[in-house]
Amino acid sequence: MAEIVVVFDFDKTIVDCDSDNWVVDELGFNELFNRLLPTMPWNTLMDKMMMELHSHGKTIEDIVQVLQRIPIHPRIIHAIKAAHALGCDLRIVSDANTFFIETILKHLKIKECFSEINTNPGYINGEERLRILPYHDFNNSPHGCTLCPPNMCKGEIIEKIQDSISSGEKKRVIYLGDGSGDYCPSLRLKDKDFVMPRKNFPVWELICKDPLLIKAEIHEWSDGEELERISLQLINKISLGESAQNISADCKLETIREPFPQVLLAHR
Ligand SMILES: [Mg+2]
Ligand SMILES: [Zn+2]
């Protein structure tokens, strides 16, 4: 079932808060963060905040310990493991950073479930300080998308994923997200794909303004239980549709023109 690519946002989708805010708040630097936020892009500020933490004696180990107790709904871990066990290709597209995401996924023992993590580079430098860099080099090669922040256009990343899987035409994408940054990739999904916006969160509100702009089938979710139930239902439906196709091909029946059962499209 590598026919299905499940793309997850990270903050407020896999984990139940924003990992950047979580680290800054838990280490007691939210006041400084809020004061500086109007003066620079979020991603630049996170790099500066890591410098501030370092100069105030906070170590990498302090950051790791905070990351390891980030809130996450247990059903989301189940959903990820189940989708992986079913053979789906799981990927992350996130505006957090590699260090935060990998630290959390390793701690939860689900890092191996993901084939790719697309996010801002985060690494420990020679002074044992965490550096966070932009995904796109916005000074030298801006991505030019007006919907997205300068450091990352998730739509561009989705197109890269679509290009990489386009050899198998039957591949379907299920995209899960919550934030306004998840709207651009939602717009680029194809009509056989699925988008799962988190209900009452920014991407859901943007989609609801004009759902006809979205080609993919829309399935909202509110919490970890719904994320698990709905995503696994979609995976099952897609696989059933595909096996029905395979059976018809094997029996040399007339080709099914619509590769997706008509009843499922009624939700659009
Ligand atoms: Mg998010
Ligand atoms: Zn964009």
From TrEMBL:
Necessary cofactors: Mg(2+)
SUPFAM superfamilies in alphabetical order: HAD-like
GO molecular function terms listed in the Swiss-Prot or TrEMBL record: metal ion binding; phosphatase activity
Residues at which substrate binds: D20, D95
Alphabetical keyword list: Hydrolase, Magnesium, Metal-binding
Pfam families xrefs: Put_Phosphatase
TM regions (residue ranges): none
InterPro entries for this protein: HAD-like_sf (IPR036412), HAD_hydro_PyrdxlP_Pase-like (IPR006384), HAD_sf (IPR023214), Pase_PHOSPHO-typ (IPR016965)
Active site: D9, D11
Binding site for Mg(2+): D9, D11, D178
NCBIfam families linked to this entry: DKMTPPase-SF (TIGR01489), HAD-SF-IB (TIGR01488)
Name recorded for this polypeptide: Phosphatase
Organism per entry: Glycine max
